[in-house]
């Protein structure tokens, strides 16, 4: 079972949720700033630690050995966590998944394979593992999902061209995706990028509420 912490929304009884997945070597502690930055009184925030120890933080999978097996294991743990959130009254349809780097890869994996539609899926500075397989094994609701994927022009760890080609492949298969590029390295580019995320969340809440 994954280690989590819920930061309640300012709006009492709100059932909107953002689940936050950190990157390699980080932890939930690295994202306590996010609820304040997004400044959405309706959003509960569920911070999540990845399952494996890594240099004082955690990782979602081993980047050197058996990566696919690690991704599959962590995907199953996140499916279980989402199922528990549903049981606790947080419908997936009102849940956003947010991930950075490794967390972005896990967001894409879960978003395309989980059997319920999300409010929205946000991936920052990441990549996709085996896009061909993702397209082939996507869930019945995958094409109903809405993704926001961002990347940096000067990312030294994950070159822009590589990730861009993967996202174009997913989009060509019919996946709905807003793709945004920022002048940044392997990070979140302050207010400009946060503003894009805020707009995506606000629009998806409005759209889901109407729908």
The computed structural class is: alpha/beta
Helix amount: 25-40%
Averaged pLDDT: 96
- By CATH, the architecture is named 3-Layer(aba) Sandwich
Strand order of the largest sheet: 1-3-2-6-7-8-9
State the order of secondary-structure elements, H for helix, E for strand.
EEHEEEHEHEHEHEH
Strand content: 15-25%
CATH superfamily: Alpha/Beta hydrolase fold, catalytic domain
- State the CATH topology: Rossmann fold
Shape: globular
According to DSSP, the number of beta strands is 9
What is the quaternary state of this protein? single chain
Summed up, the helix count is 6
User: How many discrete domains?
Assistant: 1
- Alpha-carbon distance between the two ends: 33 Å
Low-confidence stretches: none
Major sheet, described briefly?
7 strands, mixed
Question: Cα-atom Rg, whole angstroms?
Answer: 16 Å
Assigned CATH class: Alpha Beta
Structural notes for this entry:
By secondary structure, the chain is α/β, with parallel strands linked by helices. The protein has one domain: 3-Layer(aba) Sandwich (Rossmann fold). Helices cover 37% and strands 22% of the residues. It contains six helices and nine strands; from the N terminus they run E-E-H-E-E-E-H-E-H-E-H-E-H-E-H. It has a seven-stranded mixed beta sheet with strand order 1-3-2-6-7-8-9, with helices on both faces. A hairpin with a 2-residue loop joins strand 4 and strand 5. Helix 4 runs parallel beside helix 5. It is globular and about 45 Å long.
């Amino acid at each position: 079972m994954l280690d989590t912490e819920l930061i309640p929304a300012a709006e009492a009884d709100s059932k909107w949720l953002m689940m936050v997945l950190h990157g390699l070597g980080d932890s939930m502690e690295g994202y306590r700033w996010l609820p304040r930055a997004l400044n959405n009184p309706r959003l509960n925030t569920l911070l999540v630690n990845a399952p494996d120890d890594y240099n004082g933080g955690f990782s979602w999978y081993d980047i050197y050995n058996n990566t696919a097996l690690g991704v599959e294991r962590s995907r199953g743990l996140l499916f279980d966590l989402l199922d528990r959130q549903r049981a606790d009254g947080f419908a997936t349809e009102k849940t956003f998944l947010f991930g950075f780097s490794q967390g972005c890869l896990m967001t894409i994996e879960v978003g395309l394979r989980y059997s319920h539609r999300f409010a929205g899926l946000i991936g920052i500075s990441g990549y996709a593992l085996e896009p061909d397989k993702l397209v082939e094994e996507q869930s019945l609701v995958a094409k109903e999902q809405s993704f926001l994927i961002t990347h940096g022009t000067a990312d030294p760890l994950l070159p822009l061209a590589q990730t861009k080609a993967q996202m174009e492949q997913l989009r060509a298969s019919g996946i709905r995706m807003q793709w945004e590029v920022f002048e940044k390295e392997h990070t979140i580019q302050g207010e400009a990028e946060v503003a894009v995320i805020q707009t995506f969340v606000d629009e998806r809440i409005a759209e889901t509420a109407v729908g």
